[in-house]
Specification:
alpha+beta; Beta-Lactamase; Arc Repressor Mutant, subunit A; 5-stranded antiparallel sheet
């Protein structure tokens, strides 16, 4: 059952959230898709009158990687120019930043007036930790002041805790896929190189060490990768064998 708003979100228990986010992670094909679904669940869990965005540091620069609506994207992005705001502080200082009313809260002076002009009145930014690979913030915004009372704050913290665990797992899974792809590519390269060495040995009646030296010298002289030279040799031999028109008889 969807909650009626921030004050009515207690129906989402930590166990419910954990199961929901785990299922979501298993059902999505990328971290980006997972984060986009995540902000939708955040709005449902914390309140339908709330906008949600996720900021992640990419190569040292903040970027909004998911947002529930245009409001969240705008309220996030106006912080990046002046390099000041609640989501950046939450992410960099690893602490929750709560603004009950931007009209009276005098922090973040460079950000505050721009956010007010866009209609933001209250916000809550919570740090997200995805292991050593990703650091970000879950950002919640409202066009009304004092939206985030004690119950909404507690629910948002529970959600951020579970989201951090899911994000950490997502990063781990992605790294696992990357490592598997790298190993597969390495094995493919090794196979092609071994095939090329075998061809050179057969053509020159030489040892494997000598054949590898021939391959390496060709790579260095042409300033191309060893695998590229090996692939050319294997392909050329394959075409030559195909052009002889071998026929196979049962």
């Amino acid at each position: 059952m969807a909650p009626s708003g921030p004050s009515g979100s207690a129906a989402w228990t930590s166990g419910h959230l954990a199961g929901e986010l785990r299922d979501l992670l298993l059902a999505t094909e990328s971290v980006e898709a997972f984060l986009q679904q995540l902000v939708g669940i955040a709005v449902e869990a914390i309140g339908e009158d709330v906008s949600a965005g996720i900021t992640v540091a990419r190569s040292g620069h903040p970027a909004t990687v998911a947002s529930s609506d245009a409001d969240a994207a705008q309220f996030d992005e106006v912080q990046y120019g002046p390099d000041q705001g609640p989501c950046l502080t939450a992410m960099r200082a690893n602490k929750v930043v709560l603004i009950q009313d931007m009209a009276s809260d005098e922090r973040f002076s460079k950000y505050r007036m721009r956010a007010l002009s866009l209609g933001a009145r209250s916000s809550m930014s919570l740090p997200l930790a995805g292991g050593n690979e990703a650091v970000g913030a879950l950002n919640l915004y409202s066009r009304a002041p004092h939206t985030f009372g004690p119950r909404a704050q507690a629910q948002a913290q529970r959600f951020a805790d579970e989201a951090s665990r899911a994000l950490s797992l997502a990063v781990h899974l992605v790294r696992g896929v990357e490592v598997t792809d790298q190993l597969r590519a390495a094995l493919t390269s090794r196979t092609i190189i071994d095939q090329a060495i075998g061809i050179i040995m057969g053509q020159n009646r030489c040892s494997a060490d000598v054949a590898f030296g021939v391959l390496r010298n060709a790579s260095q002289n042409r300033n191309v990768k060893l695998r590229t030279v090996a692939t050319e040799i294997v392909t050329a031999v394959g075409k030559a064998e195909a052009s002889t028109g071998h026929q196979f008889v049962d």
